[in-house]
């Protein structure tokens, strides 16, 4: 299936990502990124595909690009937090989750923030404090 216009290619990439085919979605999205390098929605979709395909640095770059275009995008902050968390960069992830939850306090953001805070607390305690004796 080929797309004749950037709009069709974008829609095709969305459908492929919905079908959990992130690499195919990225292939469909590549020409759209070339013709619309400043389109927030294009970078957001690319970031989601990179995140789903575990290309975490590329996901980070895409979400940062979204935030350059629109610093108030709470979902991009949350998704950037996920990418950072998966890279083990917990303090940076915490900052992004906190901002996302402050901007838009939905349960998903609040839960992710709480879970990450607990994970950071466990990490700070260290393995010695978790022993029984």
From TrEMBL:
Record bears the keyword Disulfide bond: no
**Which InterPro entries does the UniProt record give?**
TPR-like_helical_dom_sf, TPR_rpt
Ranges: TPR repeats? 40-73
Q: Which UniProt keywords apply?
A: TPR repeat
> Which residues fall in a coiled-coil region?
none
Q: State the superkingdom.
A: Bacteria
Q: Would the keyword Disulfide bond turn up in this protein's UniProt record?
A: no
Q: This protein is called what?
A: Tetratricopeptide repeat protein
């Amino acid at each position: 299936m080929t797309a004749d216009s950037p709009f069709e290619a974008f829609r095709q990439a969305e459908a492929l990502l919905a079908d959990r085919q992130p690499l195919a979605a990225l292939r469909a999205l590549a020409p759209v990124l070339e013709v619309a390098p400043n389109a927030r929605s294009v970078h957001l979709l690319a970031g989601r595909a990179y995140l789903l395909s575990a290309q975490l640095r590329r996901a980070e770059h895409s979400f940062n690009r979204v935030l350059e275009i629109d610093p108030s995008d709470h979902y991009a902050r949350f998704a950037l937090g996920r990418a950072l968390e998966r890279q083990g960069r917990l303090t940076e992830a915490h900052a992004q989750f906190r901002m996302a939850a402050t901007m838009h306090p939905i349960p998903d953001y609040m839960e992710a923030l709480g879970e990450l805070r607990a994970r950071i607390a466990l990490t700070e305690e260290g393995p010695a404090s978790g022993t029984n004796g």
